[in-house]
Amino acid sequence: MATNTIIASPLKQHRVAGALLTADPRIDLLADGNPGPRQFKIKSADSFVRRTSASLLLKNRYSWRGYQTVSLPTDQTANRITLSAVEDEATIGTITVGLDGPEGLNSEDVFGDEIAALRAEGRRVCEFTKLAVDPITGTKRVLSALFHVAYVVAHRIRKYDTLVIEVNPRHVRYYERMLGFRVIAPARMNRSVNAPAVLLVADFSYIVRQIGEFGGQPDRAADERSLYPFFFSIPEEAGILSKLLAAQKTGSTAVN
Question: Which of 44, 64, 117, 161 is deepest in the core (most CB within 10 A)?
Answer without folding.
Answer: 44
